[in-house]
Amino acid sequence: MNDRLRLTGSSAPAAPQRIPAAALRVRGRIAEAMLALHAIAPEDAVDYSPEPRDAREFDQLRAAGIVREVPGGRFWFDLIAYHLREQTRSRTWTMWGFGIALMVVAIAVLFYRNGDTFAYFR
After folding, report:
1. Is 77 exposed, middle or buried (0-12, 13-18, 19+ CB in 10 A)?
2. Phi/psi zone of residue 9: left (φ > 0), alpha (ψ -120 to 50 degrees), beta?
3. Domain residue ranges in the chain
4. Its pTM surpasses 0.90
5. 79-91 pLDDT, tens per residue?
């Protein structure tokens, strides 16, 4: 077969592009189901109807633009939009955690400098 392809001047089809394993780390039943169906591009869209317990999450993902619909009522999962949303959430939680940690440290320093733990409460 390879010799025949060489003779006709054509080549074997290119292998599909591999997706890094880190890009496939997702949370949630809908995200896992969409990835299991390999619905990660518009041309790979699948018919998908969530279970009743997942309907709210499905609607939220559609509103956020993570689960997208193509004509014909088929859906696909936008990994880029998903990871951008997760990155934004991570930054928000990091900033809150850093702020709370600074407050705890400031309170600890106030107690340490005074020497008497309950001096401010008398």
Report:
1. buried
2. left
3. 2-93
4. no
5. 888 888 888 888 9
